[in-house]
Every structure is written in structure tokens, then in C-alpha cells.
Write a structure and sequence with these properties.
Blueprint lengths: L1 H27 L1 H30 L5 H33 L2 H8 L4 H35 L5 H30 L3 H21 L7 H4 L3 H8 L12 H13 L3 H25 L1 H13 L16 E2 L5 E2 L1 H7 L6 H16 L1 H24 L6 H27 L10 H6 L4 H30 L4 H28 L8 H5 L2 H23 L11 H29 L6
Helix pairs in contact: 1-5, 2-3, 2-5, 2-21, 3-5, 3-6, 3-10, 3-15, 5-6, 5-12, 6-10, 6-11, 6-12, 10-11, 13-14, 14-18, 15-16, 15-18, 16-18, 16-19, 16-21, 18-19, 19-21, 19-22, 21-22
């Protein structure tokens, strides 16, 4: 009974806090609130329309459309299940073992099982809201395309709610396993070798198979089945994504008994795994929590890490490899070097940030490696032009993800210690500028390398590669200025979790503006390109669009920084 009261009290408190945050957002700026509501509504309408157009296009292939749509549904939910699992592992680990609220709750006369239950619910919500936001327009468009009855939509909501519990439970268990045993050298070696073997296995499995001209002369269904052979893993019957996809498709076809069967399968696993997780994980969680809080470094036993660890010099100042590396930069003042060392160490110590970075760049690596197979089919100039700008959009969206997720919360992460930074001789103005240049330099290295490598994989000419790398350079300065400026204008010093800071009003507004800027920039660059379908137009028209891109970049990147630097002059510390 006491457990239920504690958990109910925690849920009521956080719901009340969330409601007060929503009310405060409306009081801050009604215009910005209306803009966000308009954007969310437009997102649903536009993407439902786009998904409908895409489904109609695929269905237009006689005899092949339904098969392709079915396989795409299976693939989509299979990959989303993997992404949900990684997201729950990273967010769950931080929320369970690196969160200040968790540290406080564990010290109370409260059963550790209650702490685990609450943090499990919170982590599931944080990790899964993006999945629901993405799937909502797709499933709505799929239902409209299939002309399903009204009860399809509430049934789909139930299936999705059941589905997100399974990767949440598995992610929480993996996070506890990592927290309990990650400091052991044999566990680290085994994990590393398992990851390498998994990468090689996935690369070997997904290696495209060459098809000869003789094979193409066979029946179309045989050729299509051979081409889609590598996607059969998504139809493995024991994958939760298979149950969700089968339930959705059976319901659209009117086979309600089969759809109900898959719903009951998911419900049985959710009840069984949920019961184990929410009733038997208290002691295991507490042991893992104690292990995390009682150790210093995960890799302290490795000799090669010693050079990264701080060591004492004759002046009794702590200096390590990072201090020496940043200290070797001649044009930086000593106070700026100290701040860069601090920010870099804080980023490294935050498991959520560098963990999500690894997942993001792992996905980008898989995307780039597969571009070389895709480029073999590019012979038509129209498709070459289209794919090149889709690739620019993918690289710029990755940049927007980095800036919104990691650059925007940097100012807020100073927390209640912001007065120390503000009263320091360095000055709050130089702090903001230093954070901007540090983020811009780091992201510029990553985005330039990503853009150049993707252009190389697509076998673009030198002129196009220079054109796209120049465009992504300008966008890097712009998006970092936008994220840094909005981070100062809409800070959240009460929260130490970067994920929660980004999910607030300012982070959402930053994401919206970044998305709109990328869409407009890609359109301007495509129209103003000398290799596009408008290359026969006058030179003045191309100059107008390229000039529009430059003006838009200056406005979006410069104005937030100007307003932010003006505002911090009035901060009271």
C-alpha cells in the first residue's frame, strides 16, 4: 500500500509541474506558443498528405504495390524497434544512475523498487514520444489509403502503446546490466568484441547481391523476391515489430481475429515482462546504483587511459592530456582554455550525450556506406540532381539534430552555478561566444567530413563537392548561432538533464526554426544551382536565389546571437 502511495505521489507532483510549465509557456509568449501549435498541426497535415502520395505511387505498380507496401511497413517498424531500444538504453542509464532526482529519492525512506518504477515510466516517456510523433501521420495515411473503418485508429493506438513498453523493459534491463558490470575489464572486452562482430555480421548480411541480365529475364515476382531477400529479417515472427506490423495490416484487411491474436501476443509479453520489471528489479537496481556511485572511472584499469587522467605537476595544478592539448593552442587566452576544458569534460562525463552521439553517427555511417551501392544506378541528370540535394538535406538535418540536442542546452547546463561564471573575470559575454565557437568548430569538422564523404560516395564532381561543402559550412555557422542564441534567450537552470532541457519550449522552438531554415535553404540552393533544371535561366535569377540563401543564413544565425548578447547584460547574478 505504501508503495502505491509513494508512486502516486511522485506521478501527481510531476504532472502538476508539467501543467505549470505549460501555463508559464503560454504566459511567456502567446505568439511563440501559437507558432509551435501551428507547426505541429501543419506537420501532421503535410506529412499525412505526403505519406498518402507515396503510398499511392507505390500502389500504382500493378501486382507489386501491395507487396512493396507490406514489406516497407515491416521494415519501418523493425528499424524503429532497434532505435527505440538504443534510445531506452541511453536515456534509461542516465535517468536511473546519473540523475539528481534519483540521487535524492534513493536517500529517502523509500523502497528502491518505487524509485525504479518512477524512473522507468519517465524514461519510457522521454524515449518514446518521438516514435509516436513520427508514426502518427504514417499510420493515419495508411488507414486512409486502405479505407479502413473508424475502429482501426483506436486499435492502432493500443498496439503502439503496447509496443513501446517492450523496448523500454529491455532497455532498462540492459542499462542495469551495463551499470553493474561495465567496470570489469572482461565485460568491456566481451562487449567490444560483440559489437565488432555484430557490425561485421550486419555488413555482410546487407551486402547487395549482383544481378545478371539473365536473372532479370525471369518472372517479375521471382526477381522482386530476390531483391527483397535481405529484408526478410523484418518478418521474423518473434520480433515485436512483426506483431505490430501484422496486427495493423490484418486489421486493414478486415481479418479482425488475426489482428486480435497479435494484440493478445503483445499484451501477454507486456504483462509478463512488465511484471518482472516492476516487481523484481528493486534490489538489482539498487545494487547497480551503488556500484555506479562507488567507482571513479570505467576504464581506470587500462594503461592507455592514464594519459587522459589528470596528473599533478610541480605547481600542484591538475593537468592531463586534455589540458595539455587545449593548452597548446597559442591564440587562446588562459581563461578560455580553462572553460573549454570544463565543457569538454562535462560532455564526456554525461553518458546520455556521448552515447546518443555514438548512436547517431553509427546510423550516419551505415547511411554513407550504403551510398556507394546507390550511386551505381544514378545515370539520369534529373535523379543525380535530386539525390545530391536530398543528401544535402540529410547532412543538414543531422547538423540540426546535433545543434539542437547538444549546443542548445549548454548555457542552461551551467545551472545554479551560472552566477559563478557571470561574476568571473572572463565575463558572461565571452562565455557565450566561447561556447558558440567551440560548438561551431567541433560540428564543422564533423559536418564537413560527412558532406565530403557522402559526395565522394555519390561520385560527384569536384565542383559540386566544393559547392555542397561551402553550403554546409554556412549552415553550420548559422545553426550553431541559432541554437546558442536561443539557449541563452530561453534557459532552464532548474534542470540538469539535457534531454529534458531540449524537450522544453525553447528546444522545441529551436528545432522548428532549424527545420524551416533547412527546407528553405535546400530549395534556394537547388534553384540557384548552376547544374539544376534552371541552369539555362539568366545569371541574375541564380544570383537572387543564392543571395537569398546567404541573407537567410545571416538573419537566422546572427539575430538570435545579437538578442542573446544584449539580454545577458541585464542578468542579475
Amino acid at each position: 500500500m505504501a508503495r502505491k502511495l509513494w508512486l502516486t505521489l511522485l506521478i501527481q507532483i510531476h504532472l502538476l509541474q508539467a501543467w505549470r510549465r505549460l501555463k508559464s509557456i503560454r504566459q511567456q509568449s502567446s505568439l511563440l506558443t501559437a507558432l509551435i501549435v501551428f507547426f505541429l498541426s501543419s506537420y501532421l497535415v503535410v506529412f499525412i498528405y505526403l505519406f498518402q502520395k507515396g503510398l499511392r505511387f507505390i500502389a500504382s505498380f500493378p501486382g507489386l504495390g501491395p507487396l512493396l507496401i507490406e514489406r516497407l511497413i515491416f521494415l519501418l517498424f523493425a528499424f524503429l524497434f532497434i532505435l527505440l531500444l538504443f534510445s531506452n538504453i541511453v536515456i534509461g542509464y542516465t535517468n536511473l544512475f546519473k540523475n539528481r532526482e534519483t540521487l535524492f529519492l534513493v536517500t529517502l525512506p523509500m523502497d528502491p523498487l518505487i524509485v525504479f518504477r518512477w524512473k522507468f515510466l519517465e524514461s519510457t516517456l522521454l524515449a518514446s514520444w518521438g516514435f509516436i510523433f513520427l508514426c502518427a501521420p504514417l499510420l493515419a495515411a495508411y488507414g486512409m489509403h486502405q479505407n479502413v473503418p473508424w475502429h482501426f485508429y483506436p486499435m492502432t493506438v493500443v498496439l503502439i502503446l503496447l509496443f513501446i513498453v517492450l523496448p523500454a523493459v529491455l532497455g532498462a534491463w540492459v542499462a542495469i546490466l551495463l551499470a553493474r558490470h561495465m567496470d570489469r575489464r572482461y565485460f568491456q572486452i566481451a562487449t567490444l568484441f560483440a559489437a565488432i562482430l555484430a557490425l561485421f555480421a550486419i555488413g555482410f548480411y546487407l551486402k547487395p547481391e549482383a544481378i545478371s541480365d539473365e536473372s532479370l529475364e525471369k518472372r517479375v515476382m521471382e526477381v522482386l523476391d530476390r531483391l527483397l531477400y535481405k529484408t526478410r529479417f523484418a518478418q521474423f515472427p518473434f520480433l515485436p515489430s512483426y506483431w505490430l506490423s501484422s496486427g495493423v495490416q490484418n486489421w486493414t484487411e478486415g481479418s479482425l481475429i488475426s489482428a486480435g491474436f497479435f494484440m493478445l501476443v503483445m499484451l501477454s509479453y507486456v504483462l509478463f515482462l512488465g511484471m518482472l520489471s516492476l516487481t523484481k528489479s528493486g534490489k538489482i537496481f539498487f545494487n547497480a546504483f551503488s556500484a555506479v556511485q562507488s567507482r571513479g572511472s570505467l576504464f581506470a584499469d587500462w594503461r592507455w587511459v592514464a594519459k587522459w587522467m589528470p596528473e599533478r605537476d610541480p605547481d600542484n595544478n591538475a593537468r592531463g592530456f586534455l589540458d595539455k592539448m587545449i593548452g597548446s593552442i597559442p591564440w587562446l587566452a588562459s581563461d578560455l582554455k580553462a572553460m573549454l576544458v570544463k565543457d569538454t569534460r562535462l560532455f564526456w562525463r554525461d553518458t546520455t550525450q556521448w552515447g546518443q552521439t555514438l548512436v547517431l553517427f553509427g546510423l550516419l555511417g551505415a547511411y554513407i556506406l550504403n551510398l556507394r551501392h546507390f550511386s551505381r544506378q544514378l545515370t539520369n541528370p534529373f535523379w543525380i540532381h535530386l539525390v545530391s540535394y536530398l543528401n544535402l538535406g540529410a547532412c543538414s538535418l543531422n547538423l540540426a539534430t546535433l545543434t539542437t540536442r547538444f549546443v542548445y542546452p549548454q548555457f542552461s547546463l551551467e545551472g545554479k552555478r551560472i552566477w559563478i561564471v557571470g561574476m568571473a573575470p572572463l565575463g558572461i559575454n565571452r562565455v557565450v561566444k566561447a561556447k558558440y565557437w567551440l560548438a561551431t568548430s567541433a560540428s564543422l569538422v564533423l559536418t564537413l567530413g560527412l558532406t565530403w564523404l557522402s559526395c565522394h560516395m555519390l561520385k560527384m564532381s569536384f565542383e559540386r563537392t566544393v559547392y555542397f561543402t561551402g553550403a554546409i559550412t554556412i549552415m553550420t555557422f548559422c545553426l550553431n548561432g541559432l541554437a546558442t542564441g536561443l539557449g541563452v534567450l530561453y534557459p532552464n537552470f532548474k534542470e540538469d538533464n539535457p534531454g529534458k532541457i531540449v524537450n522544453g519550449f525553447g528546444g522545441t522552438f529551436c528545432l522548428i526554426l532549424s527545420f524551416l531554415y533547412i527546407v528553405l535553404s535546400v530549395v534556394f540552393l537547388a534553384v540557384g544551382s548552376p547544374w539544376g533544371i534552371w541552369n539555362s535561366q539568366s545569371f541574375g535569377l541564380l544570383t537572387v536565389f543564392l543571395g537569398g540563401f546567404l541573407v537567410l543564413s545571416i538573419l537566422v544565425g546572427k539575430l538570435p546571437m545579437v538578442f542573446a548578447l544584449r539580454r545577458i547584460k541585464d542578468y542579475e547574478f
